[in-house]
Structures are given as structure tokens and as C-alpha cells.
Known about the structure:
- By secondary structure, this protein is mainly beta.
- The protein has helices at 2-17, 42-45, 137-144, 150-153, 215-218, 261-271, and strands spanning 23-26, 30-33, 53-56, 61-64, 71-72, 89-93, 99-103, 107-109, 119-120, 129-135, 175-178, 182-187, 190-203, 206-212, 232-238, 241-246, 252-258, 295-296, 304-307, 311-314, 323-327, 332-344, 347-356, 373-377, 381-383.
- The longest helix is centred in the first third of the chain and has 16 residues, at 2-17.
- The protein is elongated and about 80 Å long.
Amino acid sequence: MKKKCFLLLVLLLTARLFALDLEYKAVKDSAKCERKVMEADLKVQFANKNIKSFKVRAGEKIKYDTFADFYYITQGDFGYYAADDSRSMLKAIGADNKSYYYALDDVVIENADKLPRMGKDKDIKYPRESLYMIPSYYYDVLKARNYEKIFEYEPYWLISDDNTYDWTDHFNPCYLTLTNTYGVIVYKDKSVSFLITNVTRTAENLYRIKIYVNEKHKSYEGYDPRFYDGANIYLKYDGDYVDVYINSFNDKIDTFVISSYNVREALRYTTYEYYDEIKDITWPRHADGSCDYETAVRLQSGKRYRASDNLRLRSSGSTVGKPVVTIGKGTQVKVLGIGAEQTIDGITSNWVQVEVQTGAKDRDGKPIAAGTTGWCFGGYLAER
């Protein structure tokens, strides 16, 4: 019996000795608690009388508790659904050699290089410093203003034996989000959450991210086995574009674009064909300044054009002008004057004052009086 207990102790100590050695440092005054709490506002949750909490000072060092091997990474704030009320948590050993739960966003890895373009997306409920990226093909979808183009890249949305299944109720864009300490990737039918153990700048615009995935996360449905404990993610930057590889440059996941919550919402609007709600899209650029999506449309005063889609006329030459009427696709107009230049939906053109021509109809097919005037963005007008 004693021999068995001794062997068990040796095994436990060996596991502890060779386990992940990951140390963090608190970047700001925060809190830690004795048990797991998933609510977002730390000040509120640690004020709860049922939760014993302790102060964490900026600069305090903690070490990942490999015995507990616990981390919880919420996907809510990364655009998986709406921003939720969760915080990503880590169980770690504090200065008193006891285990507590810490907020992962309040700590950093010491001696790790910082990824470029990290920022806070102020459009989400609980912004944290992160790098949020989506596959570049989503911008092809937005440019085409056609939801069916999604199926060219993600055909699995069409596969269902359930006649009541509506893919738009389940659609959320694929993404890769990286913070200073952890990451989440949801790509096609695979996903995984992981801790970041180190970040190294290996060359100009090239970074290697070493990750850790515990056994619990490996058991989740859709786990991608390429993301194992000790795996490396490589990021190759090209302006707003990032080529993402896993473990070697022979295994490219995809080309991603550094993006935002606003673009994620635009993709959601696309699935419902709410194309008029899609606006203020910043189209990605390469490091040399070029853009794959921008085009320039130059119009001449006194010349006639047609609306390339249903087009809203406004009282003044900007998006803040009050709507006058929405002309139907193909409606002919005459340009009366040229206004300010702007880039919308990747199209650079001028706002123009136009006059509706004879035979015009609105988007519902109702007649519009000839001579009706208003302002519209010239990028949505085409040659007759």
C-alpha cells in the first residue's frame, strides 16, 4: 500500500514538474476570487457577499495552476453572438501560493512581443485589447451585396435535413481573435479556445504565437486537432491583411483581414438581404496602400445616368440629408451639380444633385413626378 502511494506521489510530482510553466503579471489593480464567477463586471461580482474576493495589485505575478488546468474563454465578446456578460477566467497561483480565479484580460505574459494592430473595439459591451480578424472572402460577399456568395465558401449552411431549419438564425461569421493572453478561432466547422504562452517576432511583419490547449477543450465538438498543446500559429502581415498558418508555412488556414464588430453586423444584414443597412464599411488595404475593392466613379454635370440599384435621394449632399424619395433600379436621372467627394462601400465618387427624368418609378413601382430633384451618391449611378 505504501509502495502504491509512493508511486502515485512520484507520478503527481513528475506531472507537476513537467507541466506548463506559464507566468503572468497583473497590468492593473484588479481582483481575484476563491471560486469561479462568470459575470462580466469584476467590481460587481467581487462585491457579492457570497464571493470571497481579494485585491490584486498591478505588477503582481501569478502562475498558471497546472494542477487545476482550468481556463474559461468566453466567445461572446468576439462576435460569436452578441456581447455577453462573461469574462474570460484563469485559475492561477498567487503570491501566497494559493489558487484563485483571475480575469485573463487583466494580466499579460512577461517577455512576450506585442502583436501589431491590437486595439479595443468600442462597439462591443466590454472592450478589451485584442486583434479581431475575419476571413478576407467576407469582403467579397459584402462587395457583391449577395448573401448567396457566402455558400461558395461555407456550403455547410445549406446542408440540413430539417425543413424548418433557417440558416440565417444560426449564421455567425468565422473569426480569429487574439488577446495578450488567449485566443479563439472559429473557422468553417472547426473551433478551439487556447491560452497564448509566448509571442515572438521572427522577422519583419512575421510573428509566431505558441499556444496551450488543455484536455477539456480538446474534447469539445468541432475541435481542430492542429491546435494542440505547444502548437505554433504564424501571422504574416500585409497591411490590413494577415496570412494565418498553423505549425508550418505549408499549412495555411486562410487570409484574414483585421476587422471590427461593425463589419460583422454588416455580414448579418447581408444574410437577411438588408443591403440598405450596410454602410460605413472600411475596405481593407495592402501594405502598399492598394485596395482590391475600391473603384472611382466620376460623373459630369448635365449628363444623364441610371440608378444601378434602388437609390435614396436626399435633401443635401451627404448621408445626414433628409430622405426625399427612393428611386427604383434603372431610373434615369440628370446630373445638375457636383458636390463633395466621399468613399462609400469601397467606391470613391462625388455626391451629385440630380433631376428625375420622365417615366421614373420608386422602389415599389409607383410613379415619381418628372423634375423631382435630390442628392445621391454618384457611386451608385451608371452610364445609360
